[in-house]
Amino acid sequence: MGYFGGAFVFTDEPAWQKLNKFDSSINFCGYKHTERNLWLLDYWVRGKHAYPFIGAYEESVLEALPEDDTAKNFSTIRTALRSHIDDVAYGAAWHKFAVAIAVELQIRTFFFAGDDECYDFACQINADGSTKTIACRFDPFHVKFANNRWAITPRQYADEETDFDDQLLAQLGSIPNTQVNQPVSMDAPEFYENASQEWPDDAGAPDKMLGIGTWDPYLNVERDYAVVWERLKTG
Q1: Model pTM?
Q2: Measured between alpha carbons, how far is residue 33 from residues 9, 153, 178 in Å?
Q3: In the list 8, 14, 33, 118, which could disulfide-bond 87, CB 3.0-4.6 Å?
């Protein structure tokens, strides 16, 4: 699981102190871009944090957060795919955490997490806590939520031969507000694909702002951002 990282992105200034309401096991660190209205939020639970944005895992404390209707449908899709995908069925806790952050801060919230193997997740949450988009890759499927509908696209990679189970596709198509697309052919998964494609339009270019979509993510944090708020657990 190389190059793993994840972050919250805001284009409105967060009222950081509101995050103190979250479980005390969660460490937070808020950043402000030195030249534009762009804020980042890092979080982690486990151990020491040597570098920014590398500890944004789906922890059990996040899984206990409330689940809205969108999250329930996401869970249904993940459950259906679980035995047919190459890696883990992830994303539920990240989505619920993003919703909770947006509700608490009352601002538009973008979250992404990814690596060069298993994970590629992004979601945009409106200030009222409703979900604008979710996009994630459960190889060999891509799952997208937008305009209150789900779209599931099977992917046929150039170096693999995949037979998509008709029963599974029918099961997915029977989920309310869900469309199953025809399989698409592509060379290989893109690194941080969903983070790049779902990145907020008013947050600048993801490669310039945080190195997302390049093989050098997060390397410009120390140069371009300043820490403006922290909440670190003690002991």
Answers
A1: 0.94
A2: 11, 36, 38
A3: 118
